[in-house]
Amino acid sequence: MPTLDIAGDARRTIDIIKRGGIALVPQHTGYAMAGGSIDPLQKIYSTKRRGSHKRNAMAADLETQRDLMTLGKRPQEMIEAIVVDYDLPLGVIGTFRPDHPLLVKLGDTALRASSAGGTIGNLLNAGPFHKEITRLSREEVVPLFGSSANLSGTGTKFAVEDIQPELREIADIVIDYGLCRYHTYRRAGTLINFSTMEVIRFGVCYELISGILKRWFDVDLPKDPGVDLLPSGHVNEYVLNSVA
Question: Per the structure, how many domains does the chain have?
Fold first, then answer.
């Protein structure tokens, strides 16, 4: 008998998001707050006390990312080497189709709050719950946008009990799967702009990701300066100024 009801939890979560609710959900890279339209996203934004330059990210599976982004063959091969061949989580930033059904459903105001400099961010391959809920998102055309479940600047939270009470209180559903897999990194997922090959955030599995890109694609990414040397805003947020 399985310990987790991943399919049932994802089903309940997507139904709440369809109705305009807010979900607090687990990912291997830390807990996140998610919504599917401007009202819940604004509520998350204000409760987190985010700066106006920060952007929401999109949870997606690889099929959605391929269809939504307008990257060339080589960048796409890099992405798939990381998330398919090596089974690692990855935040992909790239140019995109504004006419994609999920973005049309999201609406123009929320899209402006979730894109910058003609790019959008997709979080890929962040665990079994992420896999199931992003499949439902794609098949039922339910946008999944949001950000990490923490007050801005306080660092990624890897256990529900560490998330500030004001964020737990605005969630219409909380999916608690205990301590997230990559808690030892003490920061969120790695973000790379694959349109420019710029590292936007040094994060989870960065040393593995940079090694893959060097070995198979001869791409040299900068050395990770270490979590203690990076300002918290850069470590934990999709920053507009980095991609504009």
Answer: 1
